Amino acid sequence: MTAEGVVHCGIYHQSEGKRVSLSACSCCMMMMMMMVEFALISVCALVGLFSPAARAAGPLPLPLPLHTADPVTGGERARLEAPYLHLPVFRHFRKPRFNKQHFSPAHVKGREPLPERVRQILVPAPRRHPKTRMNASGPVRVACSARRMRVRVHTASLGSSAERVRVSLGTCEARKATESSAFFSNDLHECGTQRRVMNKTVVYSNMLYYTSDVSGSGKETFSVPVQCRFNTFHYSYKIGFMPSVKALKIYKPMKTRGSVTLTACDAQWNRLSPGEGFVIGQPMYFKAETLYVPDDKRLFVHFCHVTANSSHVSTPQVKIIDNYGCLIDSERGSQSRFVNGTQRNVVRFTVDAFTLHGKVQKYLFMHCEMSIGSVVPTATSKSCTYNHLEHRWEELYGADSVCSCCNSSCVPVMP
């Protein structure tokens, strides 16, 4: 789409000394409005992880109770006024509980309800922990966390006192020992612990070695295997909410990525200050510029005319550029011309300083219309200067044939 704009700029004012000075420039760009309509969609995401971030020995639900004890007073906290979902931090299983395609946009054709099996995973029924946990029987107890294996050996139940018993977990000695027990607490990768995957679970295995002095018969040695098992698939939860889907209409203005400016410059194309000016009959230098153009586009000046006031429809008028880029002032035998440059977002041209119909006025205003078009010049997007030596119109960047209509009428090509 071609971006178009109109620039209205005051050029200069005249004084009795026949010098002209610049006044401030202002730029007006056309805008379009676009209505965008969209619907909000809520997505629930489930995460499958293969990591030992679960408790050992199967899933352990972590429901949030309705009432919790206040840490200061010990009393019960007040019930929440609004209902909320009681979700666990995570739940873990040996394999996925449903097909993930249920959450694919290609699978959903309308607002049909989710299968009941999926709903049970999204909002699991709350389950409470027992208030007390039974002590594990036997002389060896193992507790597993995401990173560590903790083992307690009740040496007294093995029939030997602690002074005559030596217990080790793989290559590690006990961290702590009492008269009746030995304690181990080590990372899962320490003490020669082996990791392997069995039946869709991650298993960390080691051996507990027991050595005791037996009177009259030397030493007695045996070993006991210990393991930590973790499920490989996890469902992770966050606090849920019930979204309200509502179609919205948003009106957004469409505008270019940068404003268009028309600036009066000196012979080195530096911006003139308001106190500087031009001498009547000498060239004035102008630069039209926009901040951005795409790689295959270029800025073009289509029309420019001068008036005695800031209104672009006021009379009298003197045309400088007409017919979609024909610098007609160059045909009058002046020094007016388009000036070559390497920047596609800049158009430079010169115009001889003049008076408007011989009237001496303080200010004169130039009004220009420009657009961003194809980098290849056309009959309606060009920069043409008249060559008096060759008696022909010449295009600055492309084929001169696009300037053939400068002496007639350049008509846009209808799609």
Automatic annotation (TrEMBL):
TM regions (residue ranges): none
Gene Ontology molecular function: acrosin binding
GO CC term (a single one): extracellular matrix
Biological process according to GO: binding of sperm to zona pellucida; egg coat formation; positive regulation of acrosome reaction
Keyword Phosphoprotein attached: no
UniProt keywords, alphabetically: Disulfide bond
Cleavable signal peptide: none
Domain ZP residue range list: 143-391
Entry keyword Iron: no
Coiled-coil parts of chain: none
Pfam families xrefs: Zona_pellucida, ZP-N
Name of the protein in its database record: Zona pellucida sperm-binding protein 3-like isoform X1
